[in-house]
Amino acid sequence: MTTTRLKLNLGPQHPSTHGVLRLLLELEGEKILSCEPDIGYLHRGMEKMAEKLSYIQYLPLVDRIDYLAGFFYSELLCRIVESACGIEIPDKVKVIRVLMLELNRIASHLLWVGAFLMDLGATSPYFYVFREREMILRYFEKITGQRMMYNYFIFGGVRKDIEFLEDVEEIISVLPSKIDDYEKIITDNPIFIRRTENKGILSPDTAVNFAITGVNLRASGVDYDCRHTDELYRGFDFKSIILDGKDAWSRYKARILEMRESINIIKQALDYLKKSNPLEQRLIPPINLKLPEGDYYAEIEAPRGLASCYVRSDGEDKPYRLKWRTGSYYSVNLLRRILKGEYLNDAIAIAGSLDIILPEVDK
Amino acid sequence: MNIILTSIDYILNWSRANSLWPLTFATSCCGIEMMQTVASDNDIARFGSEVFRGSPRQADLLICAGTITHKMAPALLRLYQQMAEPKYVIAMGACTCGGGMFADTSYSVVNGIDKIIPVDIFLPMCPPRPEALIDAIRKLQNKIRKESVLKRKDFVNFHTPKLIEMNGILGEKGGSDELA
Amino acid sequence: MNWHEFVRIFDDCELAGDKIIVKSRLHDVIEFVIKNYPYNMLKEIIAVDNKDNTTELIYHMYSVDDEEDLYISITVQGEAESIVDIFESATADEREIYDLFGINFIGHEDLKRLYMPEDWKGFPLRKDYVQDDTRLAWNDNNEA
């Protein structure tokens, strides 16, 4: 009996590709011989738009780069402008930003847990995680007025003082027990373990060579977390999660542990904010804001890996060139390698475990 | 004759309105709010639309949740054409209504899906809250309850943009064969 | 770090802080750097279009162990040397730059459009880009 190779097209509209990712797979039986990701179905030209808009006009847009973690990208642009204008933001603003970023990280990871388990065919965790995520979104809405596109950070500070800290207290008192519940259902579930353990092995060398960052890299045993060198996180006591399983299961476990660590950071931020005075900040006047000539660079540890922003200014009120680096972009590139030789039914699980978000890939 | 048509319409519309099966077509941000609408707090199932289908052949409602770019547009048209009649479209989010923040500033975003397919309900906001999506579905249901089989055809014909004559990119089949 | 050996071999390179400005032989420079210094990750390649028909490419390298950044900058005209045989992550970056700037990377085997449709006209991130693809006519299509 002869077998022929089959070309299979997955996407761009496919329920399990997390958006508009398209994968061209070459199959022999169930085995994947090669995989070619085709992206760009959501390319919105964010980088070119920056060249047409002034900094304050561009600020609301950057939330859309990663709709699950909008705060991180606002923070990057604010940081660029603040460093260019030579402004040191007050401590309280820093702590507010850390609080928002870490809540955002938890919300993002929660959604990932739901979506990943959906990929594996388990529907109920999806309902649980959205219940908890809704709590965080409600709090964001109270503070910023929006559920997903916050536009809360502004050059030199935040739009308004933090309020409703008792809501955050409730969130962090409820969350650990909920995460325990997820772990009871998922972590030691034999079906889950069979579908993820030793699947999608990512060796540290390959990960570094493919410029993988964030949780995916740390789950392969490489200690790289730029929060430790980050000015914003100075004074916070936390550790990054390093696991050396290298497989999809470790990437799941690392995200769960990272959520717990984020709760730890939020607790410290809350202690500070409860004792602090009302907010005093000096905002940078956004009208006719011109950055001095030169190159600016800022980076932050986003939920899906290292995110960075590069701005070249020629002294005008618009950037000459603005470039985003996002974690998912390199994870998509990794699919070419990591799916090779795997079985088709594992492909979705492996791709899901890398936490790919398409607007971040396409920009 | 009219009496027969009216009662047929009544039965058809009643069954169509209460079992809208949406297609999972989540291209970006609004897709997350669509997921939220399905999840526990908002529970779209109360309105008979929880059966999200992966295949356009099984769906009769296309909730276009998110920006449509020029690369995605042929796929959108193709998916719409693959859906069986009767089919309805909700344009969810500012981007699908008229380009939103990206209108005219971005080189790769289509300024609204009404340039490509006929739209029944426009739901602006960036992104719409889950409650707003439920409201849009309710409005669509009301619209379906009132419509007549014959008039639906006129509505679709009137609102279908004349794309095919405009340029050769979208052929009659709608995009290349690879996009299925 | 000790850069004497580097300066001796590549005498047309300029060292300025954590930035190296390279005139030619980019592939050799990067190969030498990763062999002799602890840089092991290529975080990204940044392309900037100068208005005089040249493009500046900035290779942002990083050392995971030493937590140090290094920028290698080269100005090219239309084509550049590919480094996909050194860093796999460069496959994605180089395709992106080809798509948006039209830089032809010699040695890159799979160089084709990444974000834009295959038959899209022009390279959007160039400063002299004119939007004239036929598809853009959809946006003005008001008759329905």
List keywords for this structure.
heterotrimer, B: 180 residues, alpha/beta, Rossmann fold, four-stranded parallel beta sheet, C: 144 residues, Beta Polymerase, domain 2, five-stranded mixed beta sheet, 20% helix, elongated
Rg estimate of chain C, integer Å = 18 Å
Q: Given the structure, what is the number of helices of chain C?
A: 3
Written as H for each helix and E for each strand, in order along the chain, the element string of chain C is HEEHEEEEHE
Largest sheet, spatial ordering of strands of chain C: 1-2-5-4-3
Radius of gyration of chain B: 16 Å
**Fraction of helical residues of chain B:** 25-40%
Order of adjacent strands in the largest pleated sheet of chain B: 1-2-3-4
Domain count of chain C, please report it.
Answer: 1
The largest sheet of chain B, given as strand count, sense and whether it forms a barrel, is: 4 strands, parallel
The mean pLDDT of chain B is 79
Number of helices of chain B: 6
Distance between the termini of chain B: 42 Å
Domain unit count of chain B: 1
The percent range for helix content of chain C is 10-25%
State the distance separating the first and last CA atoms of chain C. 66 Å
Written as H for each helix and E for each strand, in order along the chain, the element string of chain B is HEHEHEHEHH
Q: Mean pLDDT of chain C, nearest integer?
A: 83
| Name of the CATH architecture of chain B | 3-Layer(aba) Sandwich
- Uncertain residue ranges of chain C: none
